Hints:
It contains no helices and 18 strands. By secondary structure, it is mainly β. This is HutD family protein.
Amino acid sequence: xxxxxxxxxxxGPWRNGGGAxxxxxxxxxxxxxxxxRASIADIHRDGPFSAFPGVDRTLxxxxxxGVRLTCAGEFDRLLARAGEPFGFSGDLALxxxxxxxxxxxxxxxxxxxxxxxxxxxxxxxxxxRTGHAGVLYVLRGRWQVGDHALTSGQGVWWDGNAEAPAGAxxxxxxxxxxxxxxxxxxx
Length: 187
């Protein structure tokens, strides 16, 4: 497992100037077209979201007063509760509105037909399964994975190796909550 701290991940500004992305992992490494990708996005202002044809996305609010995602004729969804995932097709042209100002989201993207993903809010022990990849992001409290203690804004990610990483990720405090993204190959 690969530990990370969001605040130490380099932030790359969006082309439209509306935010910045901190990449957690993108697989396969160095590939022109990712199979799956996890990142943290800081959304600074209202504006369009980039389309990602052939990709399924799950966005989860981490902090801020929310983000309203709209796609004409498809949906109008306000993500207002931290830790509540929302999945949608990356093929869609979306607009984002920030009713209460800037916010931060976890963005998980998987190449349709090659990977599927589920994102769940968890409060108990979780363990990666053999052949799966994924991310655990700590929302609050303290968690333990191997020799690493994790707190809010930290986490771990892992590749879909043939063997599951050893051990579970376990909560260490009564207020512990995390996002568990399970990324599964389809073929």
